[in-house]
Amino acid sequence: MSAAPLLALNGVCKRYGAVEVLIDIELEIRAGQVVALLGDNGAGKSTLVKVISGVAPADKGDIRWEGRPVHIRRANDARDLGIATVYQDLALCGNLDVVGNLFLGREIRRFGFLDEMEMERRTLHLLERLTRGVPELRAPVVSLSSGQRQTVAIARSLLGDPRLLLLDEPTAALGLRQTTEVLDLIDELRDRGLGVLLISHNMGDVKALADRAVVLRLGRNNGFFDVNTASQEQIISSITGATENAPRRPTHQEAAW
């Protein structure tokens, strides 16, 4: 029997007032796997990320972490489980350097003073593990390329050694070369055993990188796909609603992907 998934959602719902944004959502993410979360604007992708990250807790439904039921009510709950999120806006401070951004709010102190040398050492060690082109550690982030900023944001999310990484449109504002660098980085994180939830509109990125794809439409599941066997047309049809799939749990075969 295969190990339990890192994260499993069953019947998750989220409502804002009278508006049901998520309805009976099913989702599984396993260690060493990239799952693409797809859907048109308004499908519920961002809300689902907020539910998983603890920013907007689910109103009902079952959430399991490695097979045991958990409650994610706050961002700290997700962080304590080992879930990290990199949002599309990256939330970096352009006037701070790379080290300052990585340790903003969790600075290392020694004898009451900032331990700049230790923070710089840890930053260099982490970036060298992630990328060949390490940016100048004391350069203001505003001076870095878009790809380098994305790398810094991902590096910051990895400081706490998470086991599940949520990436919201990580290549949306990148050129071809920078996109390739970020996709290579995500591939490396998967090889290191992290689970990755990739929110993307780019089918090229999805086909190149993801193991599975989960489609949301109007707040409901509208398709579960093995990216290696499903055609791009099948997935797009599910996104646009040309193919309407009744909400259902993944099959045993899908759960084993």
From TrEMBL:
GO molecular function per UniProt: ATP binding; ATP hydrolysis activity
Classification via Pfam families: ABC_tran
Keywords noted in UniProt: ATP-binding, Nucleotide-binding
Source organism superkingdom: Bacteria
Record domain ABC transporter: where: 7-243
CDD domains according to UniProt: ABC_Carb_Monos_I
InterPro entries linked to this entry: AAA+_ATPase (IPR003593), ABC_carbohydrate_import_ATPase (IPR050107), ABC_transporter-like_ATP-bd (IPR003439), P-loop_NTPase (IPR027417)
PANTHER family: CARBOHYDRATE TRANSPORT ATP-BINDING PROTEIN MG119-RELATED (PTHR43790), SUGAR ABC TRANSPORTER ATP-BINDING PROTEIN (PTHR43790:SF8)
Protein name: Sugar ABC transporter ATP-binding protein
Organism: Streptomyces ferrugineus
Taxonomic placement: Bacteria, Bacillati, Actinomycetota, Actinomycetes, Kitasatosporales
